[in-house]
Amino acid sequence: MDLTDSAAEAAFRAEVRQWLSDHLTGEFAQARGLGGPGSEHEGFDVRLAWDRLLAEHGWTCLGWPAEFGGREAGIGEQIIFHEEYARARAPVRVGHIGEELLGPTLMAFGSDEQQRRFLPEIAGVRELWCQGYSEPGAGSDLAGVSTTARLEGGKWVINGQKVWTSLAHVADWCFVLARTDPDSTRHAGLSYLLVPMDQTGVRTRPILQLTGTSEFNEVFFDDAVTDAGNVVGAVGEGWKVAMGTLGFERGIGTVDQQVTFRRELAEITERARANGAIDDPLVRDRIARAWTELEALRCTVFRTLGRDGPPGPEASVVKLLWSTFHRGLGELAMEVAGPDGLTARGEPYDLDAAQRLFLFTRADTIYGGSNEIQRNIIAERVLGLPREPR
């Protein structure tokens, strides 16, 4: 695996770097670093404006076909863009759920009409999306979904509750996994529905996190409706579509993620030098180990993205690696902070970056598929080992 840029890639990297330098000015310069875990509430309006500026200049949906608003960029160019974006500390995107999860899902499973209707709006950041998967009784065991949908008068009527729904409070639409066959159990009888959020049958309630912020939400569907044609794939085959979406979740977004991890590690190392923690040989060893793990993560991400076709079950390796690494990075941040990490900077709950990192990363090994589930997927679908007894 050659990680050096070709001449064409080096030119593209220079183009990306120059564009970011030219446009991260004025209000957007002030938005550098806004958003992200534990800070997702920061500067939403300016980040949305930034996303739309990216769209105007063709920097959203790089790998999408041109007919849907993309640039048909290869995987190498996509990696370069995400690396430079993260290095420039550009604002955290607000349209990533539509761009990285639903968009590829519609291209793989959606109808021509659905693609024409939704993909240009995602590429232009004119409609934002959230993911309606987890429920109070169906988190890691997603096949236990109990939210129902029945077809009535040309509409799907949806009832149930979703939880841990990221960005639901700002989303225009939600892709919802619901049980459309009342007599079905487990994976059978589920359908993948596209549901508008702005209606009386949908209520959103923020969940207060340890960080004091509320990226996640509860979403209640009380006779919410969507058009009969807003089912992706065949009715009753939503499990296959939902698993496709989870595969795409392990995709290109993991590149800027690991670059962000690198910046966080650099900040932790600098703090260790400033407060003397670096003089502790155990701390130095943990910092060196984190750097090594991050290099291994980078290579694994690139190897996974280099495969042809949509991500398969092997992508669970990446989720397992980055979530475990990032949780450990949060613990390292607090170890370096020492006693200062135990008190807030101000009233009522003003946390610094290390504290937010530590608190938010406690969830990394749970959301998006818990580590236990990822290990089962790797064991059963990659290594061919027997299924876990139930």
UniProtKB/TrEMBL annotation:
Database matches in InterPro entries: Acyl-CoA_Oxase/DH_mid-dom (IPR006091), Acyl-CoA_Oxase/DH_mid-dom_sf (IPR046373), AcylCo_DH-like_C (IPR036250), AcylCo_DH/oxidase_C (IPR009075), AcylCoA_DH/ox_N (IPR013786), AcylCoA_DH/ox_N_sf (IPR037069), AcylCoA_DH/oxidase_NM_dom_sf (IPR009100), Mycobact_Acyl-CoA_DH (IPR052161)
Superkingdom in the source lineage: Bacteria
Alphabetic keyword roster: FAD, Flavoprotein, Oxidoreductase
Domain called Acyl-CoA dehydrogenase/oxidase C-terminal: residue spans: 236-383
Pfam families attached to this UniProt entry: Acyl-CoA_dh_1, Acyl-CoA_dh_M, Acyl-CoA_dh_N
Cofactor: FAD
Residue span, Acyl-CoA dehydrogenase/oxidase N-terminal domain: 8-123
Domain Acyl-CoA oxidase/dehydrogenase middle: 130-223
SUPFAM superfamilies, alphabetized: Acyl-CoA dehydrogenase C-terminal domain-like, Acyl-CoA dehydrogenase NM domain-like
Stored PANTHER family: ACYL-COA DEHYDROGENASE, ACYL-COA DEHYDROGENASE FADE29
Family to which the UniProt record says this protein belongs: Belongs to the acyl-CoA dehydrogenase family.
Record protein name field: Acyl-CoA dehydrogenase family protein
Organism: Saccharopolyspora halophila
Upper classification of the organism: Bacteria, Bacillati, Actinomycetota, Actinomycetes, Pseudonocardiales
